[in-house]
Each structure stands twice: as structure tokens, then as C-alpha cells.
Design brief:
The complex is a heterodimer of chains A (224) and B (80). Chain A contains five helices and eleven strands; from the N terminus they run E-H-E-E-H-E-H-E-E-E-E-H-E-E-E-H. Chain A has helices at residues 14-23, 68-77, 87-94, 151-159, 214-219; strands spanning 2-7, 27-32, 44-47, 81-85, 101-103, 111-119, 135-142, 146-148, 163-168, 184-188, 194-197. In chain A, strands 2-1-3-4-11-10-9-6-7 form a nine-stranded mixed beta sheet, sandwiched between helices. Chain A is globular. Chain B is elongated, with a radius of gyration of 16 Å. The chains are: A alpha/beta (224), B alpha+beta (80). At the A-B interface, loops of A face helix 1 of B.
Chain lengths: 224, 80
């Protein structure tokens, strides 16, 4: 199973992501954003977290126009699996591969802490190792994680089971750290091959570091 | 030479938390007549053309493609 991880100027989670997937037995390759192509044997493409282009203009806005993004869009449109984590989620919404947008956190602060999340829909490869209603403990670290979508778009998300994860307390009751619509933390596209979430499962792979709940999430992709 | 001044701001109905924070700050400085604050950004672009029609068309395309995220933002263009 081959995971290709994108690296833009300002990406800073590519090595954590690589470590996480290699720990699960996958082979990985980091691809610089200037590349016109992605490796042909890619089973999963990860747009890793960080601050691509210093978050200039808007988070993810400039990365979207990097040379590699044409290949990413083509890969996604052909059914290839794509996972955007944090800044990667922002890039995928800017590129139009996922609906909605990520705004500045309502409290205006950068939030960096562990947060519990509730699994809303596991009928997809990303969360198939978890059950609906499960609560996982995953770190968040973002300034622009406030998910926004208009009411028609939100209806579509629910109608197609595209809401994957919501922020919650330990009992699964909604708890909203950043102002996201309906406390949404992660979504997928209609076709369920493009996934995006603000929390960092790749930082929750070892219980000695606070949580290993990310293992069950990323493991879903290993069947690819 | 044409200069385009572009103002990008969050759409009406999209909560502007920065505007809200500035509103609170103005309130605590006793500017009591303030009823609303919106914070946006200004982008100034110089174009090598004197043709305002083509300049406007080009800048509108820039706004739609990159300068604004039209899911959450509106833009206004002024040419001088």
C-alpha cells in the first residue's frame, strides 16, 4: 500500500504523516509541489498539514495553484483516494474538491489541544474501522478551522452522509471549539473518495504521546 | 496604467469574528455610536493598460479565481 504525501513550502506535517503510515506498514513517498505528476502506484494521496505559502491571502488559497494540484484533481476525479489533514483540508476546499470553506476560528485564537470527536458516518473507507457514535481523542492545531457551508450545502452533506466527524465532549455531546457549522470537524465528497478534516490523526498514533485513536482512522486506508 | 483597488470582505450573513472583536474594542473605548464593524482586506493591483473595460474584466476574473473565496467572501473593485 503506497501513500503519497504532498509537500508545499510551509507544509510541516509531512514527516509525522510519513511516520504514522510507515508505522502501519505502508510505503510512503513525499512529493514536492513543483512536480507535474504523482507516482503511478499511489493508493492514497495525503495533503499534509502546515502553513502552505504562509497562509498568505487565505489558508490553502495559493497552494491550490501549485503545479502538482492539476495531477491531484485528475487523480481525485478518477476516483483516487485523497485525504486532506488541517491545511490539507483547507487546500482541498479552495481547490473545489470538497465543499464549504474554513474561516478564522470564532474566538480568533490559534487552538492547539487534544479534542474529542464523534464519528457520524462510517460508511466510507476512512472511518470503516470505527462505529457511528464512537468518540475518539485527536489533537487539533489550527487558526482557520471554522467550517462554513451555506444551508443548501449543509443539507446536501447530511443527505449523502458526508458529515464524518463532529467536535464533541467525551460523552459524544456536541462541543464546538471554533464556531464550525454544526460542530463539523471532517467531511468527504459525494463520491466518498476525497476526505478532509481539521484534527490531526497522524499525531495520535501512540498512547505514550496522549492517544492512539488515530491508528483506527488511518488503518481504514490500508485495505487499498 | 490602471490601478485596481479591490476590497474583499466576508459576505453579509457570514459571521465576521474579527469585526465583532473590533466592535467590542471600540465599545470599551466608549465609541457608543458604532452599530456594526466588518473587517476585510484591500488588494491593490497595477495593470499595464488604459482600457478600463478590459481591466475590469481581467480583475473580476482574478477575484473569482483566487483573490476572493466566493463561498464566504464578496469583493468590490474600483479602477483609477
Amino acid at each position: 500500500m503506497k501513500v503519497t504525501i504532498l509537500q508545499f513550502p510551509g507544509t510541516n506535517c509531512e514527516y509525522d504523516t510519513q511516520h504514522a503510515f510507515e508505522g502501519l506498514g505502508a510505503t510512503t513517498e513525499i512529493v514536492w509541489h513543483k512536480s507535474q505528476t504523482i507516482p503511478a502506484d499511489t493508493n492514497l494521496l495525503v495533503v499534509a498539514g502546515g502553513f502552505s505559502y504562509g497562509d498568505y491571502l487565505r489558508s490553502g488559497a495559493i497552494a491550490r495553484f501549485s503545479p502538482v494540484m492539476k495531477a491531484v484533481t485528475e487523480y481525485a476525479n478518477n476516483g483516487g483516494k485523497v485525504l486532506g489533514i488541517c491545511n490539507g483540508f483547507q487546500v482541498l476546499t479552495e481547490a473545489g474538491l470538497l465543499p464549504g470553506a474554513l474561516k478564522r476560528n470564532n474566538g480568533l485564537h490559534f487552538i492547539s489541544k487534544h479534542h474529542t470527536l464523534k464519528v457520524q458516518n462510517n460508511d466510507n473507507i476512512f472511518l470503516e474501522k470505527l462505529n457511528n457514535g464512537d468518540v475518539v481523542n485527536i489533537p487539533i492545531a489550527h487558526h482557520d478551522g471554522n467550517f462554513f457551508i451555506d444551508s443548501d450545502g449543509l443539507k446536501d452533506l447530511y443527505a449523502n452522509n458526508q458529515v464524518l466527524l463532529t467536535y464533541s465532549d467525551e460523552d459524544g455531546t456536541a462541543k464546538n471549539p471554533n464556531g464550525s457549522v454544526d460542530s463539523i470537524a471532517g467531511i468527504c465528497n459525494k463520491e466518498k473518495n476525497v476526505f478532509g478534516l481539521m484534527p490531526h490523526p497522524e499525531r495520535a498514533m501512540e498512547s505514550i504521546l496522549g492517544s492512539d485513536d488515530g491508528v483506527k482512522m488511518l488503518q481504514g486506508f490500508l485495505s487499498l | 496604467m490602471t490601478t485596481a483597488i479591490i476590497n474583499v470582505s466576508l459576505k453579509a450573513g457570514v459571521l465576521d469574528s474579527q469585526g465583532k472583536a473590533v466592535h467590542h474594542a471600540l465599545d470599551s473605548l466608549h465609541f457608543k455610536s458604532v452599530s456594526d464593524v466588518r473587517v476585510g482586506k484591500q488588494i491593490v493591483i497595477k495593470l499595464d493598460t488604459d482600457n478600463k473595460t478590459t481591466a475590469m474584466a481581467e480583475v473580476e476574473k482574478m477575484c473569482e479565481e483566487i483573490l476572493a473565496n466566493t463561498v464566504i467572501e464578496d469583493y468590490k473593485i474600483e479602477l483609477i
